Amino acid sequence: MKKYSHAWLAFMAIKRLDETKTKLSTANQKYAENLITWFHNHRDDVIQGAWYPDAVIHDMANSHVLKLSPSETGKNRYKNLPSTYQSYQLTQDSPMKRKSFKVADKNDNLPDRCESIAHSVIDNLKMQQVEAKGSPVAPTSNQLALILFMLSHYVADAHMPLHCDNRDFSAGWNLHMEIEGKWDKEIQQFYPIDKQNERFYYTENGYPKNKSENDPAYLSSFLKKVNDALASREFQITWGVKNKNVWDFMDAVCQHSYLLSYQFIPEMHKESSDTDVTSQNWQSLGNISFEDFSVAVFTDAIDSIARIWFRLWRKYMKWKKKH
After folding, report:
1. What is the Cα–Cα distance from 36 to 72, expressed in whole angstroms?
2. Which of 143, 198, 251, 322 lies most in the core, judged by the most C-beta atoms within 10 Å?
3. Angle 70-73-75 (CA atoms, 0-180°, nearest 5)?
4. CA distance 241 to 166
5. What pLDDT, in 10s, does the model give residues 218-248?
């Protein structure tokens, strides 16, 4: 995904927690409120922080992807996602679910990257808590914000189906770039950005301001449908049946992103540089529309970022109570 898509998703994840916190248990509500407050104290750093993996780290070749491909001898069972996930719902009848699959490049490590940064978030929060103020080894709150926002980048990338599909859609006419460009352009159209200061304009509640809520163009936008879908969707904090941690959960996300890619661009379209996916036909080849594809990617990514951030923050807060 592109720069402003990553930042918007991070903000919407916290907004998601804010709007659903009253449905959580009393204890969980307190954890959520603490995270929400902390986030808003660092909101001006979201655009820069969430883009840091692309702008500075440059580990796109393997750490932003987990490319899967059909295989006669690979795995034949897909992990579970929370039942509310649209990528889970849209792929239940996928013919690819009956076929085995494998990781195409053993160096791809997106779930590992998410797991490692998740540990880093908690570790650094603990170090900040126990070290005296001014200690040279204590991480600052700004450093913690950067790590947390970086994590949201990798989580969001796992939801981009072409990051999990080994077919080549970047050679020649670049479908990957086309899709991500459309998403980013739409966010900038409806959520104006102060680019000089690298921040969104905010509502009174501290979230990106939509200046076009009653504009017919926005009412037909996939972003409006993302917000509507989230409003009617239960927020669950489970990793999904049998998933035990961030790694399991992100591995499951990548598997269903792979399936969603094949729902949008069917198997008949080959893995080659002379693909028959073109700038004229790419939105009408599969079993789902580009709009449904986009809404599934964004709603699920928002829930995943919110879930992971919340569970990490809760784990830290529980530790803090004991110390």
Report:
1. 46
2. 251
3. 70
4. 27
5. 999 999 999 999 999 999 999 999 999 999 9
DSSP 203-271: -TTSSB--TTTT-HHHHTSHHHHHHHHHHTS-------TT--SHHHHHHHHHHHHHHHHHHHS-TTS-S
Domains of the chain, start order: 3-322 (1.10.575)
Length of the chain: 323
3-state secondary structure of 33: helix
Q: Which long-range contacts (CB under 8 A, 24 or more apart) does 232-236 make?
A: 233/84, 233/299, 233/303, 234/23, 234/84, 235/16, 235/17, 235/20, 235/23, 235/303, 235/306, 236/82, 236/84, 236/303, 236/307
Report the alpha-carbon distance of residue 96 to residue 107 in Å, rounded: 23
Contacts 24+ apart (CB under 8 A), 115-120: 115/245, 115/246, 115/247, 115/250, 117/147, 117/150, 117/151, 117/154, 118/151, 118/246, 118/308, 118/312, 120/147
Closest by CA to 63, choosing from 121, 143, 150, 147, is 150
Distance, in Å, from the CA atom of 207 to the CA atom of 204, rounded to the nearest integer, reads 8
Q: How confident is the model at residue 321 (pLDDT cuts 50, 70, 90)?
A: confident
Would you give the end-to-end CA distance of the chain in angstroms?
Answer: 39
Q: What is the dihedral of CA 193, 253, 115, 109, to 10 degrees?
A: -100
Structure tokens of 241? 């049946």
CA distances, 306 to each of 78, 91, 113, 316 (Å): 23, 23, 17, 15
SS3 34: helix
The neighbouring-strand residues paired with 208 are: 202
Concatenating the DSSP letter of every residue in 151-208 gives HHHHHHHHHSGGGSB-S--SSSS-HHHHHHHHHHHHHHHHS-EETTTTEE-B-TTSSB
Tokens representing 260?
């969603």
